[in-house]
């Protein structure tokens, strides 16, 4: 039979074998001779044959079958895939075994049925350990099936169908009639270069019956370089999914750091220029405030870029330092926000001087103080609040200790994206209002008013460039979250983000 199995006959074979087993459940479970025969069949036929079907040589065939979503059985309205049917077979077989201790080991599969203890602990082999802290052990048994290479059979299809996950742990099936609250599984990882682990189980109902991996009810308890500890509140077929694309892309890193270098150079030139012309700045209040705002935008971005480099060094270090990474994240968050709020202050200055008055109004000192309160006070409140809320639950920085705000667990990144995009939107509205007012003003002006008008035009021109540029940049930033595997979006965002200082100044 093993020689006759191929891509076309395998689905029918699995379905037929499953139907025969389920159809004779009552006879099988009540006849000792039948049970003994099934153990022999399991050992000499099913487990050996099934094990061969999980070998590396069969992987290409399974890949072809898994790429055909409509290749399920004709007798079932659900589009159950052959790989899902294959796994379902083992669940059915495990539930039919008599309540007696037994162990069957083949080169590819280890099946064990043992009496359930309270608590329960079992080391299946050197790679997988199972523990159940609390059980109702009376007259109950537990069946475990450890697959050496089931990752060749099951596709790494998760709930989001993201397409960049990899099965990075042994697949283990656990079945018992006892009620349990939690089960802990410690598994060795197959590839220690992958990132972002997820503890998952095979959900046969996902994708209209095709099946897929789900993390519902399961979570990562702890991890190190060799093992991952998972905890789940239910029993089924478990494994570990990890990201095959952690975006440690050398070209992307080169673009980022080259861009940051250009930004730092532009900032230094800007600050030197401002220092040289500072004494020549006009006594005009608007012109003076414009230069003050430019200096603070430059200072904020310069410090943010320095901390960005520090954070990049901490993220790339072999030995992670979460406290230092959290500190770098705080300052990056604070000073990038400060840049945006100083941009908002610039827009509000333009609106105030255009719409309300050309002369009079608030004094230079009061507007200067207001600018500093808005430029540094608001970012400080947002940054401190974000850290205070997320740091105690270890959800401030990203799970892989990348020095930036967490997204997957706490959505802390919204504390940067929302203010930034709101400010871009406000400045866009301000720009439209100012342009409308300027085009419709037809009054004679004296020299002072003409000079004021010139300064306002300069500010408006700057906002006209910055507003769409920043809007596009951080829209791409959101795109990297929505489509985390799209390298085109990542490259575009990294390039624009690192060069925004040159455009700004």
Automatic annotation (TrEMBL):
Keywords: Disulfide bond, Glycoprotein, Membrane, Transmembrane, Transmembrane helix
Gene Ontology biological-process entries: adenylate cyclase-activating G protein-coupled receptor signaling pathway; cell surface receptor signaling pathway
Gene3D superfamilies attached to this UniProt entry: 2.60.220.50, Rhodopsin 7-helix transmembrane proteins
Listed Pfam families: 7tm_2, GPS
A GO CC term assigned to this protein in UniProt: membrane
Topology versus the membrane: Multi-pass membrane protein
Domain G-protein coupled receptors family 2 profile, first and last residues per copy: 252-505
Signal sequence, renumbered to the chain: none
Domain GAIN-B: 100-248
TM helices/strands, residue ranges: 255-276, 288-310, 330-352, 373-394, 414-436
UniProt-annotated location(s): Membrane
Molecular function as annotated in GO: G protein-coupled receptor activity
Similarity comment: Belongs to the G-protein coupled receptor 2 family. Adhesion G-protein coupled receptor (ADGR) subfamily.
The protein, known as: Adhesion G protein-coupled receptor F7
Annotated organism of origin: Cyprinodon variegatus (Sheepshead minnow)
């Amino acid at each position: 039979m093993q020689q006759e199995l191929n891509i076309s006959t395998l689905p029918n074979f699995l379905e037929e074998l499953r139907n025969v087993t389920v159809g004779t459940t009552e006879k099988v479970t009540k006849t000792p001779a039948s049970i003994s025969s099934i153990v022999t069949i399991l050992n000499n036929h099913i487990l050996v044959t099934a094990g061969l079907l999980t070998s590396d040589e069969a992987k290409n065939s399974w890949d072809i079958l898994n790429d055909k979503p409509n290749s399920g059985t004709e007798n079932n309205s659900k589009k159950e895939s052959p790989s899902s049917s294959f796994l379902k077979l083992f669940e059915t077989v495990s539930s039919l075994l008599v309540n007696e201790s037994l162990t069957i080991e083949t080169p590819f599969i280890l099946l064990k049925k043992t009496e359930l203890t309270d608590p329960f602990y079992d080391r299946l082999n050197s790679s997988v350990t199972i523990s159940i802290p609390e059980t109702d052990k009376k007259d109950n048994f537990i069946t475990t099936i450890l697959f050496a290479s089931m990752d060749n059979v099951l596709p790494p299809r998760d709930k989001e169908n993201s397409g960049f996950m990899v099965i990075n742990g042994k697949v283990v099936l656990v079945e018992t009639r006892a009620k349990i609250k939690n089960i802990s599984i410690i598994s060795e990882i197959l590839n220690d270069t992958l990132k972002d682990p997820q503890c998952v189980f095979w959900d046969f109902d996902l994708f209209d019956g095709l099946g897929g991996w789900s993390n519902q009810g399961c979570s990562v308890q702890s991890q190190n370089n060799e093992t991952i500890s998972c905890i789940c509140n239910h029993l089924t077929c478990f494994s570990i999914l990890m990201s095959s694309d952690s975006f440690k892309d050398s070209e992307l890193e080169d673009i980022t750091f080259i861009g940051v270098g250009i930004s730092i150079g532009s900032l230094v030139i800007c600050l030197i220029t401002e220092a040289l012309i500072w004494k020549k700045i006009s006594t005009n209040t608007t012109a003076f405030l414009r230069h003050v705002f430019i200096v603070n935008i430059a200072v904020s971005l310069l410090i943010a870029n320095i901390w960005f480099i520090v954070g990049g060094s901490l993220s790339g270090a072999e030995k992670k330092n979460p406290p230092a990474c959290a500190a770098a994240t705080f300052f990056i968050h604070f000073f990038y926000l400060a840049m945006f709020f100083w941009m908002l202050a610039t827009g509000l200055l333009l609106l105030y001087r255009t719409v309300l008055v050309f002369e009079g109004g608030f004094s230079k000192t009061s507007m200067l103080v207001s600018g500093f309160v808005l430029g540094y006070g608001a970012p400080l409140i947002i940054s401190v609040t974000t850290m205070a809320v997320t740091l105690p639950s270890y959800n401030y920085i990203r799970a892989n200790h990348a020095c930036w705000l967490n997204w997957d667990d706490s959505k802390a990144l919204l504390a940067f994206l929302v203010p930034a995009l709101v400010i871009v939107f406000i400045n866009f509205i301000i720009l439209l209002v100012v342009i409308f007012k300027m085009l419709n003003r037809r009054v004679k002006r004296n020299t002072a008013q003409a000079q004021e008008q010139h300064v306002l035009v300069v500010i408006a021109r700057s906002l006209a460039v910055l507003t769409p540029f920043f809007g596009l940049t951080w829209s791409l930033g959101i795109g990297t979250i929505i489509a985390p595997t799209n390298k085109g979006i990542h490259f575009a965002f990294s390039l624009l983000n690192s060069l925004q200082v040159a455009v700004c100044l």
